[in-house]
User: Fold these one by one.
Assistant:
Number 1:
Amino acid sequence: MRSQLEQIREQATKELELIGDIKELDNLRVRYIGKKGELTAILKQMGKLSAEERPVIGQLANEVRNSIEKAISVRLGELKAQAVEKQLISEAVDVTMPGKKPAIGKKHPLTTVMEEIEEIFSGMGFDIAEGPEVEYDYYNFEALNIPKNHPARDTQDTFYITDNILLRTQTSPVQIRTMENQKPPIRIIAPGRVYRSDAVDATHSPVFHQIEGLVVDKGITMADLKGTLEILAKRLYGDDVKVRFRPHHFPFTEPSAEMDAMCFSCHGEGCRLCKGEGWIEILGCGMVHPKVLKNCGIDPTEYSGFAFGLGLERVAMRRYNIDDLRLFFENDLRFLKQF
Ligand code: DAH
């Protein structure tokens, strides 16, 4: 039995050397010193021994068990250290490698032009105002001197939520909301999304953007309107741009006008871009109608003002030579990447 025990110790020690992973090590432990292991099998035969032999063999068996256990735990420590090492090597990060550049998006061309116009007006002391896209009929039409059945409503058909609530067709309602909440002097622009129930084509979309402007103070005249809008045209299209003001009609301004810029392509000769006109329409404008001032509780005998509204898409189309409005809304990366 003694030699059997020695043999077990020897064999276990030898095998331990060869073991390469923790699972194998556990198998070995079960095989030698587990409940059904070789050592236990031998101890079960202790009964056959004489009374003198028994304690001696018992002590030896304990020694063997202890030494195997110890060897196993030493080996376990080694294996664990090896595993950590291996993991560290495989997960090593080469900090000298060039990084992956995250793909950063770009501003939408409409955003770029919108911000540019905001900056032009901020420079002239204008604040930026906002209003809701879901608007009351009152603000979108009524207060702007466009009563029910006014023909101007025909060209601004929209999407109705209820009889009284609709998607705004213009940014002009922000004029009313501003004048209701703020005493003159007022100097604001109001950029935003507007809606009309137009069929989609190269120059129409049921959703588009406008920038509204409003100035109200004592002694504001048409000269202020022209001066301000000329600065806008120069900043947008260059110092040598020529503009003209044509009489027009808007229900909420009196007098009303449209501002044209001389065609940058043909310089007034008439070409395809300006459809032979020599001029390109830029915006609508006028002196705020006394009725509109009154609707907002501002005394038209004391105050006067001017207003204007321009379509953002048109400005951007001209700026970037884009001939189809739909491109702005399709969000095709091949288009957007060009700006
Ligand atoms: N709201 C007008 C439109 O959508 C544009 C406009 C014209 C706005 C004249 C104004 C203005 O403030 O004075 O057609």
Number 2:
Amino acid sequence: MTLSVVVPCYNEHANVAPMVAALDSALAGLAWEVIFVDDDSPDGTHMAARALAQSDARVRCIRRIGRRGLSGAVIEGALSSSAAYVAVIDGDMQHDETRLKPMLEALAAGADLAVGSRHVAGGDSAGLGSPLRVRLSTGGIRVAQLLTGANISDPMSGFFMLRRALFEQLTGRLTGQGFKILLDLVLASPKPLNIVEIPYKFRPRQAGESKLDALVLAQFAGLLLDKILRGTVPLRFIAFALVGAFGVVVNLLVMQLARRAGWDFTSAQSIGTLIAMIANFQLNNHLTYRAQRLRKARAWRGLALFLAVCSLGAIANIGIAKALYIENGSGLLAGAAGAAVGVVWNYAVSATLVWRVK
Ligand code: GDD
Ligand code: MN
């Protein structure tokens, strides 16, 4: 086996057969396989892949249940390969599969990494569609280049190839979060990689729709932040603390509203706290723990647990603040220390108990 082509897919049912056909003609003469990694898409993408795999041994499918994420899917697909080379290509036909052979040639000639680029001579990003997407893309590229010093024209590309052995070497150092697996790989390498850029024309999408949304962009910001902090503070903790800070605002707002409606202070503060905790649970469930999101009955159980955990956190917070206040007399310092203990407790306990992060 020379080449494994890893294809992350989410709701790409209609694109599976065209992808296999396109690879079949682009990779003629090579020993290749394609690995569709589907996160249990509701449109049954895995069934489309398995249907082809039944009669074509070059087609494989990994169906992941209870997990979401482009980078994670790519990592899992690449680790299931035994080929000499691994390529990653989007499953929506937006990348140009005829560029795979030139990528392979570049690697055979000594490059560590071949990257499909829309921003070198001969490349084109017309397929991005809206002007907003174009601006987001160029902006993101600038930020990535500035902050990381990564010297490639298209660090956001999801289209690239490298030796499987190199991928495996770098895997343990990847954050594995979000959309930007290429940037993640480049930044994970302890020594600079010899990168060759292969121009390609980004095609418009034919079927299905893009999964890039505000949360994906937030994850991208997180990836960059993680690199700046060099992994000293867990990203999840930062997200959790930001959500907590937002919760304080919600708490105060609701409390004020209830006071205006004539509630006494204790009742107003209690309803404010309760609503803030529910809002925080929702935000954490969608943002901080997006990859482990609790749904339906498990979400209700999670909410109940979260309320219990945060209530204990609040008791610890108030107890510690009170003790420090009596000792030092500085309300601000005592309050900050109490809040810090509270947020660390809430984070550590809810991660294991509510979202069961391993
Ligand atoms: N398994 C899995 N899980 N696959 C996913 C997930 C997920 O959570 N999210 C997206 N995918 C798959 C899609 O099905 C598609 O095959 C591929 O990843 C890219 O996703 P799109 O939703 O098509 O993204 P895009 O076209 O907006 O973004 C592409 O272009 C960007 C550059 O503008 C991607 O290639 C990005 O990586 C690239 O940065
Ligand atoms: Mn796409």
